[in-house]
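Subject: Sanity check before I submit

Could someone independently write out the structure tokens for this chain? I want to compare against mine line by line before I put it in a report. The sequence has 130 residues.
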Amino acid sequence: SVFPILIQASEVHIGLRGTVHIAPGYQQEAITASIFSQLELRINTLGLGDSVRYAEVLRDIMQIPGVTDVQNLHLRKCPSPFNTVKFGVKRVFRTEDVEMNVGENVPVEVDEVAVFKVNSHLIDLEVTDR
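---
Independent answer below. Compare away.
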């Protein structure tokens, strides 16, 4: 018989910081909701161990009608607080948030999955029409 070893994936919470410029006449709340909806779709459908790619996030934001520019976009990550021990094996664990440089992808380990939540403390996005 073959007995599989099942290991629960750890969640890596993803967020972003930056400024999104929109064209006059567009509502900031509507653009923000569209951005969050698009990022939820992009990030929450990534597979196990798939990194969050900066270029894809930037493209998703820029394709929203009314968005004219994105500046100083930094991707952020925070490991799940529940992945310090896996099946009795102690792991090196970081509890603090990590902010990537502009243009840098968010690496995700092979036993982790990226998760984007709209109400995350990792999100600091300014949407402005100036």
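---
OP: Matches mine. For the report I'm noting this point. The radius of gyration is 17 Å.
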